[in-house]
Fold this protein.
Amino acid sequence: MKKDRKKQWVVVWVASIVLVIAALSVLCVYLYKMYSAGSGYEELISIISSHDVSDEKQSSGGSSSEPDKNVSSDGSSGGSSPAKKTNSVNHGVNFTELQKINEDIYAWIYIPNTNVDYPILQTSGDDAFYLSHNYKKEYEFAGSIYTEKLNKKDFSDPNTLVYGHNMLNGSMFRTLHDFRDPDFFAANPYIYVYLPDRTLKYEIFAAYEYDDRHILYSFDFSDKDVYAEYLAYATNPTESMMYNRREVEVTTDDKIITLSTCLGNIDTSRYLVQGVLISDEPATDTDKGA
């Protein structure tokens, strides 16, 4: 009888150890995916981009022919130099090669001194597809940087929403949270969006916490009164617990970009970084990857 009981305890003990090992293995795989997700984009950048020659316009913060909106809140005209160097107005992005990889890639976003340096995708199918798929259309926890079909691909809408995950390893839109720091916000005023034929430059006017409403469903930006009311809050988001803003005039005649990411484990809130379009320049044939 005692021997049978002993055998039972041995079986329970062994089974417990196996379960613990299995649980630890699953946890290790999960953590590995969390911290490695999104890393494949570095290889993509090295294949289709060139970052070896400085783009004079970006490092200086723009040319004198741009509008007065170019001036940041501290009176400077450009902030700090970008973390990565580029070789053309189009950031060296070869869209011909990119679209051979995936026809859903239609733009590239870059924010100096952050890790935001990614293709932007938009699917013709389920808008949530790139929430969990990479630029190769493979399942990946980190997903992609993407827009929804409610926005046109030429960034001509009053407000273009761009989404990305807040990854623990610093990839995707994680470093948008750097704009919580007032000094970082003041020193880094620009967002660049590259299209096959154009380069768009936005000046960041606000970064703040917001609720999780679907902005494009919640506001009819084609209605100037609605857009004006929205901008009144976006340019001065005092109801947010944490925000930074820049004294930049934004009117209903302007086009803005809204970058949206999560706030850790807080499902009911989002962190937004918003900029107003201040420059729209054509790309050269070389820039287009021709």
